[in-house]
Amino acid sequence: MAKGFTFIEVLLCLLLFGMGMLGALASQVYARQQVLIATQRLLATAAVTDVAASLQSVPQIAHSFQGQFKTTPAAIKLCQDVSICTVEQLLQSQLDRQLTVLIPSSGATLPYAQLCIVSGGAQPEIQLSWRGLVASKFTPKATLCPLPSGFFHVDLRAGAGS
Fold this sequence. Notes:
- This protein is an alpha+beta fold.
- The chain contains 3 helices and 5 strands.
- The chain has one domain.
């Protein structure tokens, strides 16, 4: 009687080991996707909060300010002198500078980002949408501006954030 493993036993062991390794690799890829989605959502939330703070810094026109920004502003008009610029121009200049950082032309952080500001009541509502690594599985009930299917979004509305 010979001692050792048969060829079929070795092949079965290799098959089981390979299946286990493929499962581990698949879970690693899924975990990486989820971390990227969470990072994008964190960046978008910070961006929306930053824009809201800018709007609150100019309360005279914050309630009526509206805009839709799909790309980085082409040129930043530095309007910092209150005696020369209107309050709305100051706010627009501040938002343009923020958007240059938040929505870079490369689109590496939030690809195809779109920022919408809609006046509503005492405080404008703000929505930032972007195309994620994988398509969003959730269909939003209502959005401030047109939202392509599969896009993620973060919005800040008066009285509640989502």
